């Protein structure tokens, strides 16, 4: 891999401490088990052996530290517990549990470090260990970055094994039999004579003994659930329309609220006239909040209608407000003074271009994108007697707890966040702005449950979108091969914007600007990737697959251009350049699946893209047909390697969903701005892919990697470049700007 020229200061400090043996944190403190937050809330007869498992008279409950936003996180975590506890998966109850530092995410920090997933050097492995140290001591309880499986794979299995061993010990104490004569079977300890003692009946005894910590995890050959197709734990409720989400929360005596704030995100309100709105039927109050107003009514629809009638005097946008000027600011950031990173710089790039007979150059650009989850932002909040309760879907319960406490003027221990199922997120629920609005309302209406729901229009205009970006790429070819590649990417900083809202400092470069560009496993002789930070404009945030979502398009389309300039087959050239065995096998697999190299009829084309993101190599081949000047997407082939496929059914669902998500946004979606206001405020102007346009998606999961990885996001980044490359193959038209619908029509 390339030389690491710049290292984030925080990453360096954390890594240095880890190498030094824990001078600041202390190895003992790091190794020590965190306090089990469940012990303070157990009722008589309930047992909890660690922060993740509770057993009572009703059976086994998984305390899930990671939120479910549709990706199947609850289900996969239940698989891990059920496997080692030896219980029926269908009987495991799920409780999101409280905000607590013990539920830290020890993997998410790796993506913020300048460490290539393919690197196995001492420094790289030390950095990965440092990420776990940092996650624990910072108490980073969050869901994101496809980290649920890699972070919880060992932790939850160990928790389940400890629970099982402790229940065996409880049975031994209760019966007087040696523990080694007892076994377990589907939620019960079985005595030598075949008598079954249900876990639920052992809970009271187990609660009185010390948990058994010395356990051995199952050999994979003995797994009942893991690695085998399973039905998701929420499939019945979702199939029958009985699944409840945050927006479904109800409480006795609640009032309904909605908000209307400056449509230029972060802008102020100079004043408002609510006289007409207050006269509407069912309206109880119109209250001031930061940046706008809140309307309180006796149902949500009446609140929506009244909010639309409040006459507001908005301040101007606190950022560059028009799309053309925003892209001009991005273009201006290609300046040495704005350089943010250069994590890859191999060979002598400048000399290579000076000596080249021909230089291939291209500029690509991608737009702002909305998260647009189906469930709009909502929360139930109750402030009473110095206690604040929040019920909502969120990926950041501890950050939310801290920020809500600050807004309400309370200590964090007096703020209780109850995490509910989310109807989609794609990164949106890594923010807590909507909850802070509800807290402001509750501060003005204490002792009353406030159910706050945003309108769809408010949800669109007050999103924190994926950043826009541009790339300027140069390359040379020689003897039918790619010889040099110089890629520059300019974008606003997601980390700078997002972490500032969470009250966290950010130092060093933002990895998202160049994510999945500098760390791709291609051994190009002269290879350089530079990131440029665009000054802050529209407040931005994480979006499904973060920087990789757009950088796959910027990087892989130009790789395709260089292959064609060299006269090289796009698959064969990528295989020749590939320096990572696991990635090579993914490329080989998708080539075999798609019949790459076989002839296609006139007007048809195949496009290939490969992106290594979140440690997961993913290759896609897309087949398209030119239908009288319009493009039909016929079929998609996807190969991905996550090290071990924990649930083949959910793996296929997440990959297929990622493909459709990526394709829909590449085809049709963008946020454009005028005077600081997004011009797309509902699905009619942001429609993605229609059902009749969805292609057949063929998925293959490989298991050659040595690390367990997540798959919620890696399926997204290759979709846009594979489609653009396929369109070129079918039509000869090279499209370098998203969405593609500006250049072609889709049928």
UniProtKB/TrEMBL annotation:
Entries under SMART domains matching the protein: Ald_Xan_dh_C (SM01008)
GO molecular function: oxidoreductase activity
Record's keyword terms, sorted: Membrane, Transmembrane, Transmembrane helix
Domain Aldehyde oxidase/xanthine dehydrogenase a/b hammerhead: from-to ranges: 240-318
SUPFAM superfamilies associated with the record: Molybdenum cofactor-binding domain
Keyword Transmembrane helix attached: yes
Highest taxon listed in the record's lineage: Bacteria
Membrane spanning stretches: 12-30
Keyword check for Transmembrane: yes
Span of the signal peptide: none
PANTHER family, sorted: ALDEHYDE DEHYDROGENASE (PTHR47495:SF2)
Protein name: Isoquinoline 1-oxidoreductase, beta subunit
Organism: Sulfitobacter brevis
Lineage summary: Bacteria, Pseudomonadati, Pseudomonadota, Alphaproteobacteria, Rhodobacterales
């Amino acid at each position: 891999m390339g030389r690491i020229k710049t290292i984030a200061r925080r990453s360096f400090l954390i890594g240095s401490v880890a190498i030094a043996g824990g001078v600041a944190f202390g190895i003992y403190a790091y190794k020590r088990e965190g306090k089990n937050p469940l012990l303070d809330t157990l009722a008589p007869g309930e047992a909890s052996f660690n922060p993740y498992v509770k057993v009572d008279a009703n059976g086994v409950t998984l305390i899930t530290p990671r939120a479910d936003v549709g990706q199947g996180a609850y289900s996969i975590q239940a698989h891990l517990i059920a496997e080692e506890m030896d219980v029926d998966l269908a009987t495991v109850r799920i409780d999101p549990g409280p905000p607590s530092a013990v539920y830290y995410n020890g993997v998410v920090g790796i993506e913020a470090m300048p460490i290539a997933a393919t690197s196995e050097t001492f420094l790289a492995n030390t950095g990965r260990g440092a990420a776990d140290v940092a996650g624990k001591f910072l108490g980073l309880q969050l869901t994101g970055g496809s980290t649920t499986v890699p972070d919880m794979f060992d932790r939850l299995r160990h928790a389940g094994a400890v629970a099982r061993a402790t229940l065996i010990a409880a049975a031994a104490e209760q019966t007087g039999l040696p523990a080694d004569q007892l076994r377990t079977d589907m939620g019960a300890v079985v005595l030598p004579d075949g008598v079954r003692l249900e876990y639920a009946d052992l809970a009271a005894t187990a609660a009185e003994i010390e948990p058994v910590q010395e356990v051995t995890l199952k050999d994979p050959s003995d797994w009942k659930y893991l690695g085998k197709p399973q039905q998701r734990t929420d499939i019945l409720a979702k199939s029958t329309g009985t699944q409840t989400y945050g927006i479904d929360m109800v409480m006795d005596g609640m009032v309904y609220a909605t908000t209307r704030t400056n449509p230029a995100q972060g802008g102020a309100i100079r004043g408002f006239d609510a006289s007409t709105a207050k006269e509407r039927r069912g309206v109880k109050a119109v209250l001031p909040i930061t940046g706008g107003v809140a309307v309180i009514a006796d149902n949500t629809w009446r609140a929506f209608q009244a909010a639309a009638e409040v006459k507001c005097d908005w301040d101007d946008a606190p950022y560059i407000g028009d799309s053309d000027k925003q892209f001009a600011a991005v273009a201006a950031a290609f300046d040495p003074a704005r350089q943010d990173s250069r994590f890859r710089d191999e060979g002598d790039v400048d000399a290579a271009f000076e000596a080249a007979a021909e230089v291939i150059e291209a500029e690509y650009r991608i737009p702002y994108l909305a998260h647009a989850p189906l469930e709009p932002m909502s929360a139930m909040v109750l402030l009473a007697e110095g206690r604040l309760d929040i019920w909502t879907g969120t990926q950041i319960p501890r950050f939310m707890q801290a920020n809500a406490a600050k807004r309400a003027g309370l200590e964090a221990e007096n703020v209780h966040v109850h995490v509910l199922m989310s109807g989609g997120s794609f990164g949106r629920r890594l923010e807590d702005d909507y909850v802070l609005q509800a807290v402001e309302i509750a501060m003005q209406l204490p002792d009353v449950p406030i159910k706050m729901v945003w309108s769809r229009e408010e949800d669109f205009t007050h999103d924190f979108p994926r950043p826009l970006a541009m790339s300027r790429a140069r390359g040379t070819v020689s003897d039918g091969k790619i010889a040099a590649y110089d890629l520059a990417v300019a974008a606003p900083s997601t980390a700078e914007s997002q972490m500032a809202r969470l009250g966290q400092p950010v130092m060093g470069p933002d990895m998202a600007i160049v994510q999945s560009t500098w760390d791709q496993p291609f051994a190009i002789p002269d290879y350089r990737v530079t990131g440029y930070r665009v000054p802050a404009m529209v407040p931005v945030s994480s979006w499904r697959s973060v920087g990789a979502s757009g950088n796959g398009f910027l990087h892989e389309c130009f790789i395709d251009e260089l292959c064609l300039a060299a006269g090289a087959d796009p698959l064969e050239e990528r295989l020749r350049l590939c320096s990572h065995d696991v990635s090579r096998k993914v490329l080989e697999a998708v080539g075999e699946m798609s019949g790459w190299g076989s002839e296609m009829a006139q007007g048809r084309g195949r496009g290939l893209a490969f992106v290594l993101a979140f440690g997961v190599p993913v290759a896609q081949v897309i087949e398209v047909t030119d239908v009288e000047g319009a493009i039909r997407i016929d079929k998609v082939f996807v190969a991905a390697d996550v090290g071990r496929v924990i649930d083949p059914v959910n793996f296929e669902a997440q990959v297929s969903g990622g493909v459709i998500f990526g394709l829909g946004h590449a085809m049709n979606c963008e946020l454009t701005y005028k005077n600081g206001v997004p011009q797309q405020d509902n699905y009619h102007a942001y429609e993605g892919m229609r059902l009749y346009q969805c292609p057949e998606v063929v998925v293959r999961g490989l298991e050659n990697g040595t690390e367990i990885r997540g798959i919620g996001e890696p399926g997204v980044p290759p979709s846009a470049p594979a489609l653009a490359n396929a369109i070129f193959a079918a039509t000869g038209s090279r499209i370098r700007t998203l969405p593609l619908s500006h250049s072609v029509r889709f049928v």
